[in-house]
Known about the structure:
Distance between the termini: 37 Å
Low-confidence stretches: none
Number of strands: 7
Strand order of the largest sheet: 3-2-1-6-7
Shape: globular
Helix content: 25-40%
Largest sheet: 5 strands, parallel
Structural class: alpha/beta
Order of helices and strands: EHEHEEEHEHE
Amino acid sequence: MRVSILGTGWLGLPLGKHLKDLGYEVKGSTTSPKKILELVNSGVQPYLIQIDDRVVGERGEDFFDTDVLVVTIPPSRDLERYKVTIQTITRQIKESGIKKVLYTSSTGVYGHTVGLVDETT
């Protein structure tokens, strides 16, 4: 099974490593050329992709040729831009025929809390 992770930050990269260890083919996107080597060293196929009103990057079509897409990009301060980004991702999902999508929020909700937290914190 092929899994593409759109956004390999603090949540996406460990997820990619874990899925790779479980035997999945994992593709990971980043907007930073500096992160490519880290993805390679983690066993994740790297893709340098930018998304605004369109998908920009080499082999973008290959990235979206997947069984499962995991979206881990957090909302930006510019909510209008984020809205356009999500619309572009949605359009790409439909065009690619991806059947399974997992959208996560990779933002923290506990602020600067130190210690054990749960749903009631």
